[in-house]
Design goal:
The chain is rod-shaped and about 165 Å long. The protein is built from twelve helices and 16 strands. The longest helix has 55 residues. By secondary structure, it is of the alpha+beta class. The strands form five sheets. A five-stranded antiparallel β-sheet has the order 4-3-7-6-5. A five-stranded mixed β-sheet has the order 9-11-12-16-15.
Length: 463
Protein backbone atom coordinates (compact mmCIF):
# COMPACT_ATOMS: atom_id res chain seq x y z
CA UNK A 1 0.00 0.00 0.00
CA UNK A 2 2.83 2.42 0.84
CA UNK A 3 4.44 1.68 -2.52
CA UNK A 4 1.16 2.47 -4.30
CA UNK A 5 0.86 5.81 -2.52
CA UNK A 6 4.51 6.51 -3.28
CA UNK A 7 3.86 5.80 -6.96
CA UNK A 8 0.82 8.09 -6.93
CA UNK A 9 2.84 10.86 -5.27
CA UNK A 10 5.58 10.45 -7.84
CA UNK A 11 3.10 10.69 -10.73
CA UNK A 12 1.48 13.73 -9.11
CA UNK A 13 4.86 15.46 -8.70
CA UNK A 14 5.73 14.75 -12.33
CA UNK A 15 2.34 16.07 -13.41
CA UNK A 16 2.67 19.23 -11.30
CA UNK A 17 6.19 19.86 -12.56
CA UNK A 18 5.03 19.32 -16.15
CA UNK A 19 2.13 21.74 -15.72
CA UNK A 20 4.42 24.42 -14.29
CA UNK A 21 6.97 23.95 -17.09
CA UNK A 22 4.27 24.04 -19.76
CA UNK A 23 2.71 27.14 -18.17
CA UNK A 24 6.04 28.99 -18.18
CA UNK A 25 6.83 27.90 -21.73
CA UNK A 26 3.42 29.02 -22.96
CA UNK A 27 3.74 32.40 -21.25
CA UNK A 28 7.18 32.94 -22.80
CA UNK A 29 5.93 31.81 -26.21
CA UNK A 30 2.90 34.11 -25.94
CA UNK A 31 5.12 37.05 -25.02
CA UNK A 32 7.46 36.28 -27.92
CA UNK A 33 4.61 36.01 -30.45
CA UNK A 34 2.98 39.24 -29.30
CA UNK A 35 6.32 41.02 -29.25
CA UNK A 36 7.02 39.94 -32.79
CA UNK A 37 3.57 40.98 -33.97
CA UNK A 38 3.66 44.39 -32.26
CA UNK A 39 7.32 45.23 -32.74
CA UNK A 40 6.39 47.48 -35.65
CA UNK A 41 3.66 49.19 -33.57
CA UNK A 42 1.03 47.71 -35.85
CA UNK A 43 1.97 49.96 -38.76
CA UNK A 44 1.43 53.20 -36.85
CA UNK A 45 5.09 54.15 -36.93
CA UNK A 46 5.14 53.48 -40.69
CA UNK A 47 2.35 56.05 -41.16
CA UNK A 48 4.33 58.60 -39.14
CA UNK A 49 7.42 57.97 -41.25
CA UNK A 50 5.38 58.43 -44.45
CA UNK A 51 4.27 61.81 -43.07
CA UNK A 52 7.89 62.90 -42.58
CA UNK A 53 8.98 61.59 -46.00
CA UNK A 54 6.16 63.42 -47.79
CA UNK A 55 7.32 66.89 -48.99
CA UNK A 56 5.27 69.78 -50.43
CA UNK A 57 6.58 71.44 -53.63
CA UNK A 58 6.49 75.16 -54.52
CA UNK A 59 3.50 74.54 -56.74
CA UNK A 60 1.50 73.15 -53.81
CA UNK A 61 1.75 69.51 -54.87
CA UNK A 62 3.35 66.69 -52.79
CA UNK A 63 6.15 64.25 -53.52
CA UNK A 64 7.21 61.15 -51.58
CA UNK A 65 10.90 60.49 -51.08
CA UNK A 66 12.62 57.27 -52.09
CA UNK A 67 12.67 56.25 -48.42
CA UNK A 68 8.90 56.69 -48.26
CA UNK A 69 8.44 54.65 -51.45
CA UNK A 70 10.56 51.90 -49.90
CA UNK A 71 8.33 51.86 -46.79
CA UNK A 72 5.24 51.40 -48.95
CA UNK A 73 6.85 48.69 -51.10
CA UNK A 74 8.07 46.71 -48.11
CA UNK A 75 4.56 46.59 -46.66
CA UNK A 76 2.72 46.43 -49.99
CA UNK A 77 0.78 49.41 -48.61
CA UNK A 78 -0.77 52.57 -49.99
CA UNK A 79 -1.26 56.01 -48.42
CA UNK A 80 -3.38 59.12 -48.77
CA UNK A 81 -3.16 62.65 -47.32
CA UNK A 82 -6.50 64.16 -46.24
CA UNK A 83 -6.68 67.94 -46.06
CA UNK A 84 -7.79 69.41 -42.78
CA UNK A 85 -10.09 72.09 -44.18
CA UNK A 86 -11.88 70.27 -46.97
CA UNK A 87 -11.62 66.57 -46.07
CA UNK A 88 -10.47 65.92 -49.62
CA UNK A 89 -7.57 63.67 -50.56
CA UNK A 90 -4.83 66.13 -51.54
CA UNK A 91 -2.26 63.43 -52.23
CA UNK A 92 -2.17 59.67 -52.67
CA UNK A 93 0.38 57.03 -53.59
CA UNK A 94 0.45 55.66 -57.11
CA UNK A 95 -0.78 52.21 -56.03
CA UNK A 96 -4.05 53.48 -54.55
CA UNK A 97 -6.67 50.72 -55.04
CA UNK A 98 -9.86 51.51 -56.87
CA UNK A 99 -12.89 52.19 -54.73
CA UNK A 100 -10.98 54.13 -52.07
CA UNK A 101 -12.94 57.33 -51.30
CA UNK A 102 -11.27 60.64 -52.14
CA UNK A 103 -13.34 62.71 -49.69
CA UNK A 104 -13.84 62.09 -45.95
CA UNK A 105 -16.08 63.65 -43.37
CA UNK A 106 -15.18 63.88 -39.72
CA UNK A 107 -17.29 60.79 -38.97
CA UNK A 108 -15.61 58.87 -41.80
CA UNK A 109 -12.21 59.73 -40.44
CA UNK A 110 -13.27 58.62 -36.94
CA UNK A 111 -14.48 55.26 -38.26
CA UNK A 112 -11.64 54.57 -40.71
CA UNK A 113 -8.99 55.49 -38.15
CA UNK A 114 -10.02 52.64 -35.84
CA UNK A 115 -11.15 50.21 -38.52
CA UNK A 116 -10.97 49.50 -42.24
CA UNK A 117 -11.46 51.21 -45.59
CA UNK A 118 -13.00 48.78 -48.03
CA UNK A 119 -11.64 45.93 -45.84
CA UNK A 120 -8.10 47.34 -45.90
CA UNK A 121 -6.78 47.75 -42.33
CA UNK A 122 -5.61 51.32 -41.79
CA UNK A 123 -3.29 53.33 -39.57
CA UNK A 124 -3.05 57.09 -39.30
CA UNK A 125 -0.57 59.81 -38.43
CA UNK A 126 -0.69 63.63 -38.30
CA UNK A 127 1.19 65.78 -40.82
CA UNK A 128 0.73 69.26 -39.55
CA UNK A 129 -3.02 69.91 -39.56
CA UNK A 130 -3.56 67.28 -42.24
CA UNK A 131 -3.97 63.50 -41.78
CA UNK A 132 -1.92 60.66 -43.27
CA UNK A 133 -4.04 57.52 -43.71
CA UNK A 134 -2.15 54.38 -44.64
CA UNK A 135 -3.78 51.16 -45.88
CA UNK A 136 -2.36 47.62 -45.80
CA UNK A 137 -3.15 44.30 -47.47
CA UNK A 138 -6.38 42.81 -46.19
CA UNK A 139 -4.63 39.81 -44.60
CA UNK A 140 -1.85 41.75 -42.86
CA UNK A 141 -3.53 43.06 -39.69
CA UNK A 142 -6.59 42.34 -37.63
CA UNK A 143 -7.98 45.41 -35.84
CA UNK A 144 -10.17 45.49 -32.76
CA UNK A 145 -12.85 48.05 -33.61
CA UNK A 146 -13.98 48.84 -30.10
CA UNK A 147 -10.99 48.53 -27.75
CA UNK A 148 -12.88 49.45 -24.60
CA UNK A 149 -12.90 47.30 -21.41
CA UNK A 150 -14.65 47.62 -18.10
CA UNK A 151 -12.21 49.16 -15.61
CA UNK A 152 -13.10 46.69 -12.85
CA UNK A 153 -12.40 43.84 -15.25
CA UNK A 154 -8.94 45.21 -16.02
CA UNK A 155 -8.26 45.81 -12.31
CA UNK A 156 -9.12 42.19 -11.52
CA UNK A 157 -6.91 40.69 -14.23
CA UNK A 158 -4.40 39.18 -11.71
CA UNK A 159 -7.24 37.48 -9.80
CA UNK A 160 -8.77 36.28 -13.07
CA UNK A 161 -5.44 34.83 -14.20
CA UNK A 162 -5.13 32.93 -10.91
CA UNK A 163 -8.74 31.75 -11.21
CA UNK A 164 -8.19 30.52 -14.76
CA UNK A 165 -4.93 28.82 -13.71
CA UNK A 166 -6.64 27.11 -10.75
CA UNK A 167 -9.56 25.92 -12.88
CA UNK A 168 -7.20 24.63 -15.57
CA UNK A 169 -5.01 22.91 -12.98
CA UNK A 170 -8.05 21.26 -11.39
CA UNK A 171 -9.26 20.07 -14.78
CA UNK A 172 -5.80 18.68 -15.61
CA UNK A 173 -5.63 16.86 -12.27
CA UNK A 174 -9.13 15.48 -12.81
CA UNK A 175 -8.21 14.27 -16.29
CA UNK A 176 -5.01 12.77 -14.89
CA UNK A 177 -6.77 10.77 -12.18
CA UNK A 178 -9.48 9.61 -14.55
CA UNK A 179 -6.92 8.53 -17.15
CA UNK A 180 -4.62 6.80 -14.64
CA UNK A 181 -7.28 5.23 -12.43
CA UNK A 182 -7.14 2.08 -14.52
CA UNK A 183 -3.36 1.88 -14.20
CA UNK A 184 -3.44 2.45 -10.44
CA UNK A 185 -6.23 -0.08 -10.06
CA UNK A 186 -4.07 -2.64 -11.86
CA UNK A 187 -0.87 -1.68 -10.06
CA UNK A 188 -2.28 -1.88 -6.51
CA UNK A 189 -2.81 -5.68 -6.38
CA UNK A 190 0.51 -6.27 -8.18
CA UNK A 191 2.40 -4.15 -5.63
CA UNK A 192 0.60 -5.98 -2.82
CA UNK A 193 1.53 -9.32 -4.36
CA UNK A 194 5.19 -8.35 -4.66
CA UNK A 195 5.19 -7.32 -0.99
CA UNK A 196 3.60 -10.64 0.01
CA UNK A 197 6.13 -12.81 -1.85
CA UNK A 198 9.04 -12.33 0.61
CA UNK A 199 6.69 -13.13 3.49
CA UNK A 200 5.90 -16.54 2.01
CA UNK A 201 2.22 -15.78 1.43
CA UNK A 202 0.38 -17.36 -1.46
CA UNK A 203 -0.17 -14.79 -4.19
CA UNK A 204 -2.83 -14.81 -6.90
CA UNK A 205 -3.80 -11.75 -8.93
CA UNK A 206 -6.66 -11.63 -11.40
CA UNK A 207 -5.16 -11.56 -14.87
CA UNK A 208 -7.15 -8.73 -16.39
CA UNK A 209 -6.64 -5.08 -17.26
CA UNK A 210 -3.74 -3.37 -18.97
CA UNK A 211 -1.19 -5.10 -16.71
CA UNK A 212 -2.56 -8.60 -17.16
CA UNK A 213 0.78 -9.89 -18.53
CA UNK A 214 2.60 -8.69 -15.40
CA UNK A 215 -0.07 -10.23 -13.17
CA UNK A 216 0.28 -13.55 -15.01
CA UNK A 217 4.06 -13.46 -14.59
CA UNK A 218 3.71 -12.73 -10.87
CA UNK A 219 1.23 -15.60 -10.46
CA UNK A 220 3.70 -17.89 -12.25
CA UNK A 221 6.53 -16.82 -9.93
CA UNK A 222 4.32 -17.36 -6.88
CA UNK A 223 3.33 -20.83 -8.01
CA UNK A 224 6.96 -21.71 -8.73
CA UNK A 225 7.99 -20.54 -5.25
CA UNK A 226 5.15 -22.52 -3.65
CA UNK A 227 6.23 -25.62 -5.59
CA UNK A 228 9.86 -25.15 -4.57
CA UNK A 229 8.80 -24.63 -0.96
CA UNK A 230 6.79 -27.85 -0.99
CA UNK A 231 9.70 -29.76 -2.52
CA UNK A 232 12.08 -28.26 0.03
CA UNK A 233 9.81 -29.24 2.91
CA UNK A 234 9.65 -32.78 1.53
CA UNK A 235 13.44 -32.92 1.35
CA UNK A 236 13.81 -31.47 4.85
CA UNK A 237 11.32 -33.96 6.26
CA UNK A 238 13.03 -36.83 4.46
CA UNK A 239 16.43 -35.67 5.73
CA UNK A 240 15.22 -35.34 9.31
CA UNK A 241 13.50 -38.74 9.16
CA UNK A 242 16.62 -40.32 7.67
CA UNK A 243 18.86 -38.87 10.39
CA UNK A 244 16.41 -39.97 13.07
CA UNK A 245 16.22 -43.49 11.60
CA UNK A 246 19.98 -43.85 11.28
CA UNK A 247 20.45 -42.58 14.82
CA UNK A 248 17.97 -45.14 16.10
CA UNK A 249 19.55 -47.97 14.12
CA UNK A 250 23.07 -47.11 15.31
CA UNK A 251 22.21 -46.98 19.03
CA UNK A 252 21.65 -50.75 19.49
CA UNK A 253 24.87 -52.09 17.86
CA UNK A 254 26.82 -49.21 19.37
CA UNK A 255 25.56 -50.06 22.85
CA UNK A 256 26.66 -53.66 22.31
CA UNK A 257 30.12 -52.50 21.16
CA UNK A 258 30.45 -50.29 24.23
CA UNK A 259 29.24 -53.04 26.55
CA UNK A 260 31.66 -55.68 25.21
CA UNK A 261 34.51 -53.15 25.15
CA UNK A 262 33.82 -52.36 28.81
CA UNK A 263 33.89 -56.07 29.71
CA UNK A 264 37.17 -56.55 27.88
CA UNK A 265 38.61 -53.50 29.60
CA UNK A 266 37.84 -55.04 33.02
CA UNK A 267 38.85 -58.60 32.08
CA UNK A 268 41.72 -60.10 34.08
CA UNK A 269 42.65 -62.49 31.30
CA UNK A 270 43.80 -59.75 28.86
CA UNK A 271 47.13 -58.01 28.80
CA UNK A 272 47.44 -54.36 29.67
CA UNK A 273 47.92 -53.48 26.01
CA UNK A 274 44.68 -55.24 25.05
CA UNK A 275 42.86 -53.52 27.92
CA UNK A 276 44.16 -50.16 26.67
CA UNK A 277 42.85 -50.95 23.18
CA UNK A 278 39.47 -51.97 24.64
CA UNK A 279 39.40 -48.68 26.56
CA UNK A 280 40.07 -46.74 23.35
CA UNK A 281 37.23 -48.64 21.61
CA UNK A 282 34.83 -47.82 24.44
CA UNK A 283 35.75 -44.10 24.53
CA UNK A 284 35.54 -43.71 20.74
CA UNK A 285 32.21 -45.54 20.74
CA UNK A 286 31.00 -43.16 23.41
CA UNK A 287 32.14 -40.28 21.20
CA UNK A 288 30.25 -41.74 18.23
CA UNK A 289 27.15 -42.12 20.37
CA UNK A 290 27.36 -38.51 21.50
CA UNK A 291 27.92 -37.36 17.92
CA UNK A 292 24.87 -39.30 16.70
CA UNK A 293 22.76 -37.85 19.50
CA UNK A 294 24.01 -34.35 18.66
CA UNK A 295 23.25 -34.86 14.99
CA UNK A 296 19.72 -36.05 15.77
CA UNK A 297 19.07 -33.15 18.15
CA UNK A 298 20.50 -30.59 15.71
CA UNK A 299 18.26 -31.92 12.95
CA UNK A 300 15.15 -31.73 15.14
CA UNK A 301 15.98 -28.21 16.29
CA UNK A 302 16.69 -27.04 12.75
CA UNK A 303 13.33 -28.26 11.44
CA UNK A 304 11.34 -27.36 14.59
CA UNK A 305 10.64 -31.01 15.32
CA UNK A 306 12.01 -30.95 18.87
CA UNK A 307 9.25 -30.65 21.46
CA UNK A 308 10.13 -27.99 24.03
CA UNK A 309 8.97 -28.59 27.59
CA UNK A 310 8.71 -24.98 28.66
CA UNK A 311 8.53 -24.11 32.35
CA UNK A 312 9.91 -21.37 34.63
CA UNK A 313 13.61 -22.10 35.17
CA UNK A 314 16.39 -20.27 37.00
CA UNK A 315 19.46 -19.80 34.80
CA UNK A 316 21.67 -19.67 37.90
CA UNK A 317 20.54 -23.19 38.84
CA UNK A 318 21.01 -24.37 35.24
CA UNK A 319 24.61 -23.13 35.08
CA UNK A 320 25.43 -24.40 38.61
CA UNK A 321 24.10 -27.88 37.80
CA UNK A 322 26.33 -28.11 34.72
CA UNK A 323 29.38 -26.95 36.68
CA UNK A 324 28.76 -29.53 39.43
CA UNK A 325 28.36 -32.35 36.90
CA UNK A 326 31.67 -31.55 35.24
CA UNK A 327 33.49 -31.10 38.56
CA UNK A 328 32.32 -34.56 39.68
CA UNK A 329 33.39 -36.10 36.36
CA UNK A 330 36.85 -34.50 36.35
CA UNK A 331 38.62 -37.10 38.48
CA UNK A 332 42.06 -36.12 37.18
CA UNK A 333 41.37 -32.42 37.94
CA UNK A 334 42.69 -31.38 34.53
CA UNK A 335 39.88 -28.87 34.16
CA UNK A 336 39.40 -26.96 37.42
CA UNK A 337 36.08 -25.08 37.42
CA UNK A 338 35.45 -21.57 38.76
CA UNK A 339 31.96 -20.35 39.70
CA UNK A 340 32.07 -16.68 38.75
CA UNK A 341 28.66 -15.42 39.92
CA UNK A 342 27.94 -12.89 42.67
CA UNK A 343 26.33 -14.45 45.76
CA UNK A 344 23.44 -11.99 46.12
CA UNK A 345 22.33 -12.19 42.48
CA UNK A 346 18.54 -12.50 42.30
CA UNK A 347 17.04 -15.50 40.48
CA UNK A 348 17.32 -15.12 36.70
CA UNK A 349 13.98 -16.62 35.67
CA UNK A 350 12.92 -17.42 32.10
CA UNK A 351 10.49 -19.84 30.47
CA UNK A 352 12.60 -22.64 29.07
CA UNK A 353 13.30 -26.32 28.59
CA UNK A 354 15.56 -27.22 31.52
CA UNK A 355 17.11 -30.28 29.89
CA UNK A 356 18.03 -28.42 26.70
CA UNK A 357 19.44 -25.43 28.60
CA UNK A 358 21.66 -27.70 30.68
CA UNK A 359 22.71 -29.38 27.42
CA UNK A 360 23.75 -25.98 25.97
CA UNK A 361 25.96 -25.10 28.95
CA UNK A 362 27.40 -28.64 29.00
CA UNK A 363 28.32 -28.36 25.32
CA UNK A 364 30.25 -25.15 25.95
CA UNK A 365 32.22 -26.74 28.81
CA UNK A 366 32.78 -29.89 26.73
CA UNK A 367 34.03 -27.66 23.88
CA UNK A 368 36.64 -26.08 26.16
CA UNK A 369 37.78 -29.52 27.34
CA UNK A 370 37.87 -31.01 23.83
CA UNK A 371 40.09 -28.23 22.47
CA UNK A 372 42.45 -28.20 25.45
CA UNK A 373 43.55 -31.83 25.95
CA UNK A 374 46.40 -30.73 28.23
CA UNK A 375 43.94 -29.06 30.59
CA UNK A 376 42.75 -25.51 31.31
CA UNK A 377 40.82 -23.46 33.82
CA UNK A 378 37.13 -22.99 33.00
CA UNK A 379 35.04 -20.15 34.40
CA UNK A 380 31.23 -20.18 34.39
CA UNK A 381 29.15 -17.25 35.53
CA UNK A 382 25.66 -15.73 35.33
CA UNK A 383 24.99 -11.99 35.06
CA UNK A 384 21.93 -9.78 34.89
CA UNK A 385 22.61 -7.07 32.27
CA UNK A 386 19.91 -4.49 31.50
CA UNK A 387 16.89 -6.45 30.21
CA UNK A 388 18.79 -9.70 29.62
CA UNK A 389 20.51 -12.55 31.45
CA UNK A 390 23.98 -13.74 30.42
CA UNK A 391 25.59 -17.15 30.96
CA UNK A 392 29.33 -16.79 30.30
CA UNK A 393 31.64 -19.76 29.79
CA UNK A 394 35.33 -18.88 29.43
CA UNK A 395 38.59 -20.86 29.45
CA UNK A 396 42.28 -19.89 29.47
CA UNK A 397 43.29 -22.55 26.97
CA UNK A 398 44.84 -22.35 23.52
CA UNK A 399 42.01 -20.14 22.26
CA UNK A 400 40.85 -19.79 18.66
CA UNK A 401 42.32 -18.13 15.58
CA UNK A 402 40.71 -15.07 14.04
CA UNK A 403 39.83 -17.02 10.89
CA UNK A 404 38.07 -19.80 12.79
CA UNK A 405 36.32 -17.25 14.98
CA UNK A 406 35.05 -15.51 11.85
CA UNK A 407 33.76 -18.82 10.47
CA UNK A 408 32.14 -19.60 13.79
CA UNK A 409 30.31 -16.27 13.83
CA UNK A 410 29.23 -16.28 10.19
CA UNK A 411 28.35 -19.91 9.45
CA UNK A 412 25.91 -21.98 11.50
CA UNK A 413 27.65 -25.29 10.73
CA UNK A 414 31.34 -25.08 10.02
CA UNK A 415 34.17 -27.53 9.45
CA UNK A 416 37.26 -27.33 11.64
CA UNK A 417 40.38 -29.47 11.77
CA UNK A 418 41.36 -31.12 15.04
CA UNK A 419 44.75 -29.95 16.25
CA UNK A 420 47.06 -30.65 13.35
CA UNK A 421 45.20 -33.73 12.10
CA UNK A 422 43.70 -34.08 8.65
CA UNK A 423 40.43 -35.44 10.01
CA UNK A 424 37.69 -32.76 9.91
CA UNK A 425 35.53 -32.30 12.97
CA UNK A 426 31.97 -31.01 12.72
CA UNK A 427 31.08 -28.13 15.06
CA UNK A 428 27.80 -29.75 16.07
CA UNK A 429 28.28 -28.93 19.74
CA UNK A 430 28.36 -25.18 19.21
CA UNK A 431 25.69 -25.42 16.51
CA UNK A 432 23.35 -27.07 19.01
CA UNK A 433 24.14 -24.34 21.55
CA UNK A 434 23.09 -21.71 19.01
CA UNK A 435 19.93 -23.62 18.11
CA UNK A 436 18.88 -24.15 21.75
CA UNK A 437 19.40 -20.51 22.65
CA UNK A 438 17.58 -19.36 19.48
CA UNK A 439 14.63 -21.63 20.40
CA UNK A 440 14.43 -19.65 23.67
CA UNK A 441 14.49 -16.28 21.89
CA UNK A 442 18.13 -15.57 22.72
CA UNK A 443 21.48 -15.15 20.97
CA UNK A 444 25.03 -16.48 21.33
CA UNK A 445 28.30 -14.57 20.96
CA UNK A 446 31.80 -16.01 20.60
CA UNK A 447 35.05 -14.14 21.20
CA UNK A 448 38.63 -14.35 22.38
CA UNK A 449 38.89 -14.82 26.14
CA UNK A 450 40.48 -12.31 28.48
CA UNK A 451 43.21 -14.89 29.28
CA UNK A 452 44.04 -15.85 25.67
CA UNK A 453 41.42 -18.58 25.66
CA UNK A 454 37.87 -18.75 24.29
CA UNK A 455 34.67 -17.24 25.67
CA UNK A 456 31.03 -17.89 24.77
CA UNK A 457 28.10 -15.84 26.06
CA UNK A 458 24.48 -17.03 26.06
CA UNK A 459 22.09 -14.07 26.10
CA UNK A 460 18.45 -14.59 27.09
CA UNK A 461 15.79 -11.85 27.22
CA UNK A 462 14.54 -11.25 30.77
CA UNK A 463 10.89 -11.96 31.59
Amino acid sequence: MKSTFKLIRRFAKILLFSVIILFVINILLLIFVFYRSTSNAGGWDAAERIGTELAETESGSYTLSEEGETILQQRNAWAILIGDRTGDVIWHSENLPGGIPLHYSASDISYYTRGYIEDYPTTTAARGDDLILMGYPKDMYWKHMWPTFDYQLVAKIPQLILLFAAVNFFVIILIYFISTSGVLKSIKPIVGGIQDLPEGKEVYIKEKGMLSDLAAALNSVSEKLRRQERELKKKETARANWISGVSHDIRTPLSMVMGYAGQLEESTELSEEDKRKASIIRRQSLRIKKLVNDLNLASKLEYNMQILHMQPVNLIAIARQSVVEHMNADLDEKYPMEWNTIEDLEPCMIDGDKELLVRAVNNLIDNSQAHNPKGCHISVGVQAVADAYHIIVEDDGIGITDEKLKNLRNTPHYMMNDHGTAEPRHGLGLLIVQQIVAAHGGTVTFDHGSHRGFVATLIFPAK
